[in-house]
Amino acid sequence: MVLSDHNNRSSPTPRFCNSFANRIFSDVAGDITITINDTSFLLHKFPLVSQSGRIRKMVAETKDTNLSKLDLINFPGGPEAFELAAKFCYGVNFEITPANVAHLHCAAVYLEMTENYRNENLITRTESYLNEIVSQNLEKSIQVLRSCEMILPIADELGIVNKLVEFIAENACKEQLVAGLSRLECGNRVIDEKGRRQEWWIEDLSGLKIDFYQRVISVMVSRGIRQDSVISSIMYYARESLKGIGKSRIWNPARTIPVLETGQRVILETLESLLPMENSSLIPIDFLFGMLRMAIMMDSSLGCRLGIERRIAVRLESVSLDDLLIPSVQTGDSLFDVDTIHRILVQFLQIIEEVEDGDDDDCCGYESEGGVGSTSHSSLLKVGRIVDAYLAEIAPDPYLSFQKFVAMIEVLPDYARVIDDGLYRAVDIYLKAHPTLTEHDCKRLCKFIDCEKLSQEASNHAAQNDRLPAHMAVRVLYFEQLRLRTAITGPSAFSGYMSGAPSAPMSPRDTYASLRRENRDLKLEISRMRVRLSDLEKEQVCMKQGMMDKSRNGKTFLTSISRKFGIFAGPTSGKQHKSRSRKRGYSIS
């Protein structure tokens, strides 16, 4: 008779694995066959029913006294685990190791090998090994946890996974504490040793599946493990699991997205959730951009991408131009992913605003102790220079829309730029690469350029630039005239930008106050110029009227002027003038 613990079914062509039973009971024939996943074991009922509650119940519940076969469905650990459990029932010595203890424990629970049937039964033995041996060793804990990946979900249901995760976190914290105490005792001599100690467990954790790894890191963080250790572990896991995260990718005109292994998106999103947000300055910026590029290629969730972008925004002042040149994966779009950079800039400005609001609450204002400007404003100036370089780099793209280019210019406030040479260069390149722009669009672009912030060289170039609208050249010439007048008459209220050299960075409040003063002085100067212009127009009318009157009397205006000033006095007067000059020259010598 065949009995199954799940349903009645026969195994096709079973493979017998009974060598160890034959060695012990070679003179006694086996009376029951246990089938595990199409592998059969010819065994004896007595050693099994005396220690396994499940087999005892199955044998007792059958009405057939000649039961000869049992089929154990979904046996945890497969035939290998059952063979070890059978050896234990037969009293055969074998070694419990980190590689088999989890499988053996699950098999013992499945077979109900409890203390009710024998003292120190298999469940007790495996639990003792876990609690006394594995719990004290970080390497063995990781090894056992890795073996649990093959026996899910029963290993999780029995609490083995949670127990191992706690073991790993506890031992990692202990090693960190020991390393810290050694550093205090010996100074800097143990730094290398500490680095090597961290390296091995970081490397071992990279072999876990992502769900186990997430649970381990989460418990480590809750236990107070150092964030730099957590970040190092996440970076190592990412480089081992995500193909090409450390490689810079250039734009491919074919827009081909590489074939990614199954689960890569889940790994990336999980690692992003594990990265700290409050201390993101510990994360290398190139690693964050590598994750961002992969998130774009994998079309990861919006929350994942925004989280990475937020961490980049915190350190935007330290990025390079190459970092920002992220290739676009959208067909028919611009060559570079401008939308992503725009979102990063928006988040950066939000962070700046939050910092400044916090400074206001602390009565710190916008000024730093050095009196030059707040740290946030200094960061804003650096980002302004980076953005101008980025604009110049993407401007030649023929697929870059006018709206996106304008949005990238508008995102930064005016006080983010001390000098507009970089912005002028980017606009000029865009106008050159897009000759079909309407006059209205050209004027709109040029309105973003503050002619007062252009250097002497940029002003000279703009005055002769045929691509710029006429009113732009007039504005440049006007401010050049003011700059020249300032250079002649000395410094004035608006000599900051008129001098041609950028002033020191000022906070937004000081900038606004200075601009208000300059605007007031400029309005006054314009009023004076209007009055002067009106006077000149009146003089011109009088001169014209005088010319007409002289012409009626037979005298030209030129003749009257020459007589009045003695400019045109004929050849004789010219000779006399020369002789007087020579005499005057001799007297001097």
TrEMBL record:
Residues 575-589 have a biased composition (Basic residues). This is NPH3 domain-containing protein. PANTHER family: OS12G0117600 PROTEIN. SUPFAM superfamilies: POZ domain (SSF54695). Belongs to the NPH3 family. It comes from the Eukaryota. Residues 512-539 form a coiled coil. Residues 199-483 form the NPH3 domain. Pathway: Protein modification; protein ubiquitination. Keywords: Coiled coil, Ubl conjugation pathway. Residues 569-589 are annotated as: Disordered. Residues 30-98 form the BTB domain.
